[in-house]
Amino acid sequence: MDLVELLQQAQRLTNETKMDTEVPGVERTMAQVLQATQEFHSRVTQTGTNDLQAHILLGSKGVDLPKLTQKLETLSARQSFEPLDPVTDTDVQGYLKNERENAILSVIDETNRSIFESVERQKWRCVYSEWGEEKESLLNALVGPNQQDFPDVQRQMVPTAMADEPIPYSRLNVHQQLYAEQITIYNESHIQGIQRPNLVSTFAELVQKSFDDELVAEMWNVLECMSAVTLLSRSVEPLKNRQTSPHFVHQARTYLERRYRTYMKKFIESNLVLARRGGIPSVYNLVRSYVGVTFRRPQSLYGLHDVNNGRPLWPLVYYSMRSGDMEAAANYLKESGTCPDLLKLMTLRKNDDTDASMAKLEGQLKLEFNNKLHDCTDPYKKAVYVILLACDPLFTHVELMRSIDDFLWMQLSILRSPDQRDFNIEQLTYSGLQSLILEKYGENYFNAREKTPLYFQVLALTGQFEAAIEFLARTEKNRPHAVHMAIALNEISMLAAPRSVQQPLLSSEPDDPTPMKRLNLVRLIVMYAKCFEQTDTEQALQYYYLLRNFKSEDGTNAMLSCVCDLLVENCGDPMLELVFGVEDVENSLRYTGGIFAEFHTLECDKYSLAEMVGDKLSKRSNYESAIKLYFIAGQLGKALRLLCSLLAQVVHQPPQHGSMRGRMGVLIKRLSAALAERKTDVEVHVMVTYTVLSQVMEFFDLYHAGESRLALEILSINRLIPASSLEVDECVTNLKRMGHEIIKVLPDILLAAMDIVYKEYVKLKGSSGTASVFGDETKSVNKEAAVRHLRSRAKALTNMAASVPYRMPSTTNQRLVQLEILMH
Fold this sequence. Notes:
structural constituent of nuclear pore, about 800 residues, mRNA transport, mainly alpha, transport, nuclear pore complex, 35 helices, translocation
């Protein structure tokens, strides 16, 4: 509200309250005014301005402020349920009073909380109960159907059973299984040395018969057509072979022309009345009927030149060339009698005649084209000249480009090899066309994500197999087709692979022609086979066999590396038996059966594979599995080294079923049987360490079984511990000749030996006989001599612990010294 509105409102109120009669004014003397002023001043100075305003405010609401103040002052803070402040430590009476009141307050507070929670639970229990009753009443209010509407279904118990050896569910779909079967047949042909089939034709036929997918079948047809080329040399790099050979361009044109003939036949069959077919079936008559139907309306003839028997001439010539029949095109030109020079050039091209007269004729026709036909209104005539003269590659021919096939055929038709190029005019090369498709237009132009088969065909028809397969492999749906296309091309030496298997899926080398790429087949197959190698191991190995000719940077065979990685991740007994077979009953070092036995080559056999897997497992500290692989590979020396390392860790433990020590015992028996046949392959010091550890393991077995006499006999035979102080130096010297694994287990041996001596000492002190576990040395002597002998033996054990060139654990020395002291 502004000042003007405020003034207007004040004037309106003044007018409303204005009375006709005037109110008499109140007159006071000066003394009365002074007295009223003094009374007002005294009230203000006594209560203060704030108190006065509070009195006025609360008094207007009917509140007596002085009386309310008196009530608030009478309240005591001790009557509220607040924790009391602690008192000083010296005020004992106050402290006890405060603690008592605090306890009472805490009980009251806890009681209030429990009551509130109980009430809350009871409330929700009642709510749920009432809602349950309400739901039941609602359901009961519904009219149920008659029992006759439902069939009489009787529940039956269906027994279920699981196989003793369940087979994992295959992760290969129907199409992948069909592909895998053909790969297996192909590998078997190679292993048996018989003639191998062409995988491209095999897969194309398979897809045509068994796959209900026309787009996939069309992709395989393109690849089959493009690969039906006799290579100049299999030793030449595939990329260079492809760039220098004109056969790939010819095959692409042939495929497009064949497909266009099929299109024209279908078009004519749908317009048989208008086509008026007749004569001998040929491209000549086919084109004549097609042009007759296409140009039947007068407006379609606008801008066209020349006529042949009532039909436009240049469409007849163009569509004859588009169908791949140069002879039919020449016949139409010959019948019309026009352009004799062009007819002559067409005849020379048809007969592949490249003499000097042809170059002169081309020059004349190019001059004519530039002077007269460059702005020709007949697009078909201009297209014929452009195709025959291979000129004007930038012209788009919009009137003729009805599909990507037309565009691609036109570009392929005007290509010239580097040795045929005329540098005076602009011409298109094979490499330029590939760059145009892959780099300039690319995936966005062709809408490749939604039209994957179309983009694949364009790349394949321009000889870019690697880029086409890599694009196809990006999607899960098309990856199986891409993998087998790459395999089929690689088997006929048409796939360019990088020099290193560590390269990405699609790469290029510095000396490769632009824009050609290389496809890493090893990475592609591994990526594909990893998905099912756990469930379909046999099929995965068939794919890995295709990589036998690839080498990694360190010279390792790619096939062995792939299978090795599979076994490292799955080194259980079932997988090892599946790959390597089972142990021969007659020869423990021989394994029979197994999938990998089928793939035996000069560089890839199961023994070298087992050694490679064992090496990787040992680097991962999976010694137990590595020992099994070394045993399969016949590498007993490596197996013994790892076994000694494991025995040094568990040999002192008590025997338990299923423990690592128990499994080591089984391996010792197998290795001992194998060493009886091939002991010469093992180094001497490894053999000595293994033998001693085997004896030590037997010692601890007897020790834990309570066979003290037999246990000490084993130690005495191996000269591991002294019988007296005179033998300490000899035992220490003998210990130095053994491996470090014996040194690691020595503290446990000394403790076990000392424990046997101490138990014998306690037994001897508590009995009257003189029989001892130490045999003849204590049999025919008195009790005191036997005690002195035991003390001497304990002293020898303590001295040996202090003499060995190895820092004994402090607990071992303390225990040995403690037991020796107890025996004195």
